[in-house]
Design goal:
By secondary structure, the protein is mostly helical. The protein has helices at about 1-15, 30-40, 45-55, 60-70, 75-85, 85-100, 100-110, 115-125, 140-145, 150-170, 190-195, 215-225, 240-245, 250-265, and strands at about 135, 175-180. It has a two-stranded antiparallel ribbon with strand order 1-2.
């Protein structure tokens, strides 16, 4: 869901309400103090805020990566899919479909999203949790981007959402790690999506999108269903469900690759 960040984050911010009033740029600690007050107003405890912000500094590598990011695919669908929809991935995904057959059937029944598409997303985003989910502290990453004035309001929203993940106890601070824009877990949810769509499907009292396969798959299905997924309807290019998939990733190339991977899993 990485590309989705740069193409749809404005809509996320609108869904979550008004932007915070912290002043971007300038002294970083002054900025964090303002963000702390904003987070408190959103229900995050002072203890959680102080723990999360302790010793926090700007991450220059995150800013460098963000300035290089274009948010669009440079490859054609055929070129991109050829590097993603490959036999080894399909074989592993089919094996996992058998392993998690009952779980996938239950999620498909409840949310209406085909198990093949869920498996395609899970595979493409993180190789089913075995690939790179990111190694950066999410709070530092998003605080860095929020302090930067190019998209400060949007990332301030994400920073408050990340603090809410800690407040809820879904992940401890040491485990709140992710990619270069703060994406978390096996299907790379932004913090705001984590809060909005996350499902505690294993029933342990926490939404854990890093370690819990039931939570990961159900939350992914919940995102699509909440945004208008039509159960039993096709999802190839030109369909209503293909448009719903824009809420996962705005790139047509990526969505066509998702659909192709799902088709291969049905074969």
């Amino acid at each position: 869901m990485i590309v989705r960040l740069f193409l749809s984050i404005a809509s996320i911010a609108m869904l979550l309400g008004p932007a915070s009033a912290a002043q971007c740029g300038g002294d970083f600690n002054t900025f964090l103090a303002a963000m702390g007050r904003e987070a408190q107003g959103a229900g995050v405890s002072r203890t959680v805020i102080d723990q999360a912000f302790a010793g926090l500094t700007i991450d220059p590598a995150v800013l460098s990566f963000d300035r290089r990011q274009r948010g669009t695919f440079r490859k054609s669908f055929e070129e991109y899919a050829a590097t993603r929809v490959i036999p080894a991935r399909i074989k592993r995904a089919k094996g996992l479909m058998q392993k998690h057959a009952q779980l996938l059937a239950r999620i498909q029944q409840q949310y209406g999203v085909p198990k093949e598409l869920l498996m395609a997303i899970w595979t493409l985003e993180s190789d089913n949790g075995t690939g790179d989910m990111g190694k950066l502290p999410v709070i530092r990453t998003i605080a860095t981007l929020a302090h930067d004035c190019r998209r400060t309001e949007l990332f301030q929203t994400e920073l408050v959402a990340a603090l809410k993940i800690l407040q809820r106890g879904d992940l401890p601070l040491r485990d709140l790690i992710g990619a270069f824009a703060g994406e978390i877990g096996q299907t790379q949810f932004l913090p705001s999506s984590y809060i909005k769509y996350g499902v505690d499907y294993d029933g342990n009292g926490h939404v854990d999108l890093r370690h819990s396969v039931p939570d990961v798959l159900a939350s992914t299905a919940n995102l699509l269903k909440t945004n208008g997924w039509k159960a039993g309807a096709p999802f190839g290019e030109g369909t209503e469900n293909f448009q719903v998939m824009r809420e996962w990733n705005r790139s047509e190339v990526y969505r066509k690759t998702m659909a192709l991977f799902a088709e291969r899993l049905r074969e």
